[in-house]
Design goal:
Length: 83
């Protein structure tokens, strides 16, 4: 028989399955970690930008504006981080 008609190595096929499974597991882990980190960042930003209870209405309005700016800045940072 010629070499080009030989059966492929079965061990090679098993290692391809393992590497494919590892890629799927790594993909799922990355997605979960990204979601957890984003939730933590959102919670921290919300906590920092909620303002004080004893603040005047002007200070509360300023804190609200600063909070909105901070959230938009974090969205931009995350968008740039994807590339």
């Amino acid at each position: 028989m010629s070499d080009k008609y030989e059966r492929p190595n079965p061990g090679l096929h098993v290692s391809n399955e393992v590497s494919e499974m590892e890629r799927v597991i790594n993909m799922v882990i990355r997605q979960v970690v990204r979601q957890v980190v984003n939730r933590g960042m959102n919670a921290g930003i919300d906590k920092l930008t909620q303002g004080r209870a004893d603040a005047t209405p002007e200070q509360q309005a300023q804190a609200q504006q600063n909070g909105n700016r901070t959230k938009k800045a974090m969205q931009m940072i995350r968008r740039f981080g994807r590339f």
